[in-house]
Design goal:
The protein is an all-alpha fold. It is 84% helix and 0% strand. It has one domain (3-152). The two termini are 34 Å apart.
Amino acid sequence: MTPGLRKFALSIHLTASVGWIGAVIAYLALGITAMTSQDSQTLRAAWFSMQLIGWDVIVPLAVTSLVTGIIMSLGTAWGLFRHYWVLFSLVLTIFAVVVLLQHMQDVNYYAAIAIGTPAATTGGLRGELLHASLGLLVLLVIQVLNIYKPRGMTAYGWRKQQEQRAGRTASGAAVGEGS
């Protein structure tokens, strides 16, 4: 990957990833507002907004983060399967996206009930807050892994590193022999 293309891909990846975290925080704020309000209009508006933010903001950012993360790992020296932190980030991101997509069906259900009934209740919000809080925790763990990049190579990474060293040694010996 050329440096310009790498920077462009990294910019998109960082924007989507940090945006995903921010959108989840906004989603949590709506859930907390709905839980603490006694007004059915506020509750209905919160469910409608949570559904809207979920499908129109969180899901696209999550998918973009996953796709650009894969592109970044394949296009850089970090590789997709060479370092444990990249592999853990990938697995956690896939897990988060799959859970998110499945959970959005529940959001659709509760939003339809809240929007369709004049006296909406807080049913489903406790689970919603727990789900979003755990999702935020997973995203923060991924972010920390990507910032600190803990040491540790996978068996595949070690093998690739040894192959590269052997290739450099062999090409260096061949150059030295011809002198």
